[in-house]
Specification:
Elements (H helix, E strand, L loop, with lengths): L2 H11 L7 E3 H8 L6 H13 L3 E6 L2 E6 L1 H14 L25 E7 L5 H13 L3 E4 L2 E4 L4 H10 L3 E7 L4 H8 L2 H19 L12 H16 L18 H28 L3
Antiparallel strand pairs: 1-3, 2-3, 4-6, 4-7, 5-6
Helix pairs in contact: 1-4, 1-9, 2-10, 5-6, 8-9, 8-10, 9-10
Length: 279
């Protein structure tokens, strides 16, 4: 597991609810079960500080790192998209509009036409950030999303890229347009493949949490489950149900993820608390 991704997972899934900060020594202990070595942890932390995700703090006289306000906002948004189902298994956000996490959709496409992107590296960097927000490319310089997301403007401002923004009402071809633009056939197949792998992964923790499974093992399995699931944040825009295929694979996968993430959470949380407690 990549150290930077593991740190994002750790802060977002555990530390955000525990003061959003931790000593360096605790970060090293927490990432050890995931195969991330101390030098890689420190390198990743330094990189995240330079990128504005973490800031140095002193915790009981020890060096540590806390989430920046920007990182908190990003992880709050990510958490809402990672955990998609209610305790009874129904999709969160499903209501009168029948949407899956998209009850605020205004039934318009939001378009951004980039005026100029300097080079391939900047294009790739921008594409990754826009994809995380659920936008999809129509061409090298044109993107479409579901909402007039203020963070898109913030990203373009940071990157120094100008864009023209438009809003267009959906028509009778909306379902086919969404299927093609967001590659829903491929995405659905990816969810099915993930579900097969995830079932094999959680079998390592047993059918229920018994004394045979240590807190550290539960933490490691749950962390791997979250890590692989989080990758869908860059691929799944959270389309309203009316734009999704019938019997959408993402709904089945989300129900499986939420159930097992919750099942493993108490033991994983104990391991985190133990690592954060000075010994």
């Amino acid at each position: 597991m990549h150290a930077r991704s593991a740190l994002f997972d750790l802060y977002g899934d555990h530390l955000r609810a525990r003061g959003a900060q931790a000593p360096v020594a605790a970060l090293v202990r927490l990432l050890a079960p995931l195969g991330v070595h101390p030098p890689a942890v420190r390198t990743a932390v330094s990189r995240m500080v330079r990128q504005g995700w973490l800031e140095p703090v002193r915790l009981d006289g020890q060096p540590g790192y806390a989430l920046t306000s920007r990182a908190r906002r990003r992880l709050d948004d990510a958490a809402a998209r990672i955990y998609r189902t209610a305790p009874d298994g129904t999709p969160i956000g499903t209501g009168a509009e029948g949407s899956e996490g998209s009850g605020d959709w205004d039934r318009h496409w939001h378009l951004g036409i980039l005026r100029e992107v300097p080079n391939a590296r900047r294009r790739e960097q921008l594409a990754s950030q826009l994809a995380f927000l659920g936008w999809a490319p129509l061409s090298d310089g044109a993107w479409v999303g579901l909402r007039n997301d203020a963070e898109v403007d913030q990203i373009l401002g940071v990157e120094g890229i100008a864009a023209d923004r438009f809003r267009a009402p959906v028509d009778s071809q909306a379902v086919e347009f969404a299927r093609r633009v967001w590659r829903l056939d491929e995405l659905g197949a990816s969810y099915d493949a993930w579900l097969i792998e995830a079932k094999a992964l959680v079998d390592a923790a047993g059918d229920d949490m018994t004394t045979d499974t240590t807190d550290e093992q539960a933490f490691a399995v749950r962390s791997q489950l979250v890590h692989e699931w989080r990758k869908f944040l860059f691929r799944d825009p959270g389309l309203p149900a009316e734009l999704l295929p019938a019997d959408w694979a993402g709904t089945r996968a989300a129900a499986f993820f939420d159930f097992h993430a919750e099942r493993l959470s108490p033991a994983a949380g104990r391991f985190v608390d133990d690592c954060l407690t000075p010994h």
